[in-house]
């Protein structure tokens, strides 16, 4: 559960991807090829890139992606019309720009279709990204409680003195260690405290003394990197 909150990088990289998509769409439109479908691919790719740098996709994400997708593609189509007119009649860019209204009137049906479908494919791309995110979150939430429940049942069946560091405790230990490695990478101390407290309430609070003891034992037997050692020390404060 490594928390990624580099919103600035997420916004910039998604902008670059959407800009590349708008350029491709503009080139296709220049050659009279239906280009709005490029928006779907660009939106999904930009959404995946955004999530790689910032897991939290709230209102800012949806507004940003909508404005980027529709805005850049409208700009791309308009620029394509001007460049097409400029090349056709051999006039300067500023002269071609003044004839923009006439160009739109001559290509009105194609212009409207591409604008409308840009919005449709933008919505479809955002929905695909949203469904993927929910599916990933559901898988993560379903796997962890099962490991903890099996560990609790095993702890009740055997005396502590007879219990080896069983596989279920190793899995719990690795799960906790992975999360605390993520926590030590959070730069904001206040945010780090909030995330650790949420994790403690959701998982660590359910550990009895036996589970906590076996988790620590499993981590002590594991060859830890320097980063994992720091994460283990932080974890040891909460269990």
Helical segment count: 10
Give the DSSP E fraction (strand runs of 2 or more residues): under 5%
Major β-sheet, in short? none
Mean pLDDT over the full residue set: 82
Which class do the helix and strand fractions yield?
mainly alpha
In angstroms, what is the radius of gyration?
A: 27 Å
- What is the first-to-last residue Cα distance? 18 Å
SSE pattern? HHHHHHHHHH
Number of strands: 0
Work out the oligomeric state of the chains in this entry.
single chain
Helicity range: over 70%
Topology at a glance:
Blueprint: H1 7-30, H2 37-53, H3 59-89, H4 93-98, H5 100-106, H6 108-157, H7 167-184, H8 189-202, H9 209-221, H10 226-236
Helix pairs in contact: 1-2, 1-3, 2-3, 2-6, 3-6, 6-7, 7-9, 7-10
Which tags fit this structure?
10 helices; 239 residues; elongated; mainly alpha
Q: What would your notes on this structure say?
A:
Helix 1 packs antiparallel against helix 2, helix 1 runs parallel beside helix 3 and helix 2 crosses helix 3. By secondary structure, the chain is mostly helical. The chain is 80% helix and 0% strand. It contains ten helices and no strands.
Task: Write a short abstract of this structure.
The protein is mostly helical. Helix content is 80%, strand content 0%. The chain has helices at 7-30, 37-53, 59-89, 93-98, 100-106, 108-157, 167-184, 189-202, 209-221, 226-236.
């Amino acid at each position: 559960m490594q928390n990624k909150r580099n919103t600035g990088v997420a916004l910039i990289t998604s902008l670059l991807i959407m800009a590349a998509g708008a350029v491709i769409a503009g080139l296709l439109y220049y050659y009279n090829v239906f280009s709005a479908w490029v928006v779907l691919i660009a939106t999904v790719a930009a959404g995946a890139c955004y999530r790689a740098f910032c897991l939290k996709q709230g209102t800012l994400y949806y507004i940003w992606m909508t404005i980027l997708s529709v805005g850049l593609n409208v700009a791309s189509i308009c620029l394509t019309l001007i460049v097409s007119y400029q090349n056709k009649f051999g006039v300067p860019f500023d002269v071609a720009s003044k004839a923009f209204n006439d160009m739109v009137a001559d290509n009105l049906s194609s212009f409207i279709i591409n604008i409308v479908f840009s919005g449709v494919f933008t919505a479809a791309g955002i929905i695909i990204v949203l469904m993927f995110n929910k599916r990933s979150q559901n898988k993560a939430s379903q796997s962890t409680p099962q490991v903890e429940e099996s560990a609790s049942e095993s702890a009740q069946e055997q005396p502590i003195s007879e219990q080896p560091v069983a596989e279920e405790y190793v899995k719990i230990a690795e799960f906790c260690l992975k999360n605390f490695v993520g926590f030590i990478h959070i730069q904001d101390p206040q945010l780090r405290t909030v995330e650790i407290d949420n994790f403690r309430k959701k998982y660590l609070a359910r550990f009895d003394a036996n589970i906590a003891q076996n988790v620590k034992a499993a981590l002590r037997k594991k060859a830890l990197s320097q980063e994992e050692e720091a994460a283990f020390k932080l974890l040891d404060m909460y269990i």
